[in-house]
Amino acid sequence: MILDGRTIAQNIYNSLGEDIAQLKDTPTLGAILVWNNDESLRYIKQKRKFAEKTWINFKLFQFEDTISEEALKSEILKLNNNTEISGYIVQLPLPKHINELRVIRNIDPKKDVDGFHPENQWKVMIWDLTGFAPCTPAGVMKILEHYNITLVWKKISILGRSNIVGKPLTMMCINAGATVTSCNSRTPDISEFTKNSDIVICATGIPHILKAHMTSPDSIVIDVGFSIVNGEIHWDADYNALISQWNSVTPVPGWVGPMTVAMLLSNTYKAHILAHE
Ligand code: GUN
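^ thats the input. predicted complex w/ guanine below
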């Protein structure tokens, strides 16, 4: 079975568009862009395109990559106080002279639609649904929910421990009742864990870290990890060669981006509603 993330993302866009059409005021998503590398520009373009398709206004705040951390902080404080902005993101990565964690801490948690602020990360940990969950992990949970894949009793291996995907996803799966193993690139013999897992979620950015012989044929494999080398996208799971051996897999390419953006726009809608309650 193919877990079809693209269709689920489309359903989210459709229903968001309908909800937003009912509102008196249109939500606005802000995006701060400091480093104009090709990849960040591609992400921003995708966020703008889908925001506009769901009737969410999109406002870009672009700065030179020489901007100081202090100056960026004061721009962030301006957005915190700008009532026209429902929620906003700071597109990562930032230039090397700027400390990302310090910058993120200045975002108002109520406008942190990326779910990166420590308060929102903490809310994910204690399962407080008033916060904003990071978008890629939230997208993975949506896919599991859509296919009625219950996590209670399940053994899950999560490959990758980033602050924005692997770690929050680990917490979300624990909250949903799963028994979770967190693996990373230095885990000796990852297959010892993945072979015994009902679900394997890849989020490392290491090409083909997961091969079919490392999983049981009954496993559900969800791959959100990729890297771009010389303009070519490489996925964590060796999908093309080995799809026939797996029970359920998310198709690649083309679903992680739409699903992540769908969750970002859902968070923007939620921020707008919370601010108007
Ligand atoms: N850079 C790569 N992915 C993301 C994301 O989801 N949000 C932000 N802000 N930056 C990113």
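Strands lie at 28-33, 57-62, 87-90, 155-159, 179-183, 199-202, 220-223, 226-229, 232-235, 248-249.
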